[in-house]
Amino acid sequence: MSTATTAGSWPSMSTTPPNLSGLGSQHVTWGVPAGGGKSGYIFQGGTVPVKTDGSEFTLGTYTHENFPIQGMPQPQFDVDLSVRVAFEDGTEADFAFRFHHNETPNDGPAPEDIVNLPMFVSPQTVTIDGDEYGVVISGFKQGGQVVQTFISPENGSNSAEVVAMFARAGKPDIVLTAVSHKGQVKYTQADEYVEIVNRGTVAGNISGWVLGADDAGQDYTFPPGTVLQPGQRIRIYTNQVHPQWGGFTYGSNRPIWNDKGDKAVLRDTAQNAVSELGYGNRATTP
Questions:
Q1: Alpha-carbon span 212 to 201, nearest angstrom
Q2: Spatial contact of 12 and 23, defined as CB atoms under 8 Å apart
Q3: Do residues 163 and 137 touch, judged by C-beta distance below 8 A?
Q4: 131: how many CB neighbours lie within 10 A of its CB?
Q5: CA dihedral defined by 11, 127, 54, 231, rounded to 10 degrees?
Q6: Exposure letters 217-243 (e unless 16+ CB within 10 A, then b)
Q7: Under DSSP, is residue 226 helix (H, G, I), strand (E, B) or coil?
Q8: Which residues contact 160 (CB under 8 A, 6 or more apart)?
Q9: Could you report the per-residue pLDDT of 165-184, keeping only the tens digit for each?
């Protein structure tokens, strides 16, 4: 593990909204206020521990100042973020990302603005200990969950950590990251799930791969065309379908994951164990 210092700025936007100011700084604002302040983005970096094994770290804190503004000529647009990472050994590198902004109407059933990340992987790389790495953004961390869509309520400043990882350039890295074995649905625990993430810098095809538990009949085979983009997370539920997490389900009317302990194993089409994750009395030894 090493320490790095991050700092960010917003160098450009895909449109020029009214009252635009702050491009090139960590605080960009736009819009004609309709009773309050302008809308805007802030990126606050800091000193963070980083690893090059795919472990996630906080790249910085993103804040959306979401105040009512007059109607925008173009309500959806992109805002570019540039983050400089300075390592302990003096190495510095700049990484670029893009945020997609939806400036929704201030009234109606869903006035919250929506921000997502159409570009998870930095085009730039950095050489660390002789190996080339890119930065992959996992998403926004809100309420303990890492999500790829940021929902920003109206009339306030809403913040989330931007979670990222250093990943070897040029290859996928598919790993199990969580087993939620304590479902809230009585008896069937239909809402149990296993989470998988691609922490590599290129897409990974997991068609035909198998997610298994210890007992017979607890295998899930991924259908043809299952491709995980860099930074993408999916979940395989016991008996629920959640399209925002890929829509994968065992379709089992009984629990899959033992509450006392179990081990999830992800195997490729050659039956090689690509990733394993145990918990409880089957906890994986670090």
A1: 26
A2: yes
A3: yes
A4: 12
A5: 40
A6: ebebebeeebebebbbbbbbbbbbeee
A7: coil
A8: 61, 62, 140, 141, 142, 150
A9: 888 888 899 999 999 998 89
Adjacency order of strands within the sheet including 273-280: 219-221, 210-212, 261-267, 273-280
Predicted TM-score (pTM) of this structure? 0.75
Mean pLDDT for the stretch of residues 258-262: 89
Domains of the chain and any CATH numbers: 2-168 (no CATH), 174-280 (2.60.40.1260)
**Rg of the chain, C-alpha, whole Å:** 21
Give the pair of three-digit tokens for residue 246.
């890929």
Question: Can you name the residues that pair with 264 across neighbouring β-strands?
Answer: 277
pLDDT tens, residue by residue, 193-237: 999 998 888 899 999 999 998 777 789 999 999 999 888 889 999
What tokens were used for 123? 């085009």
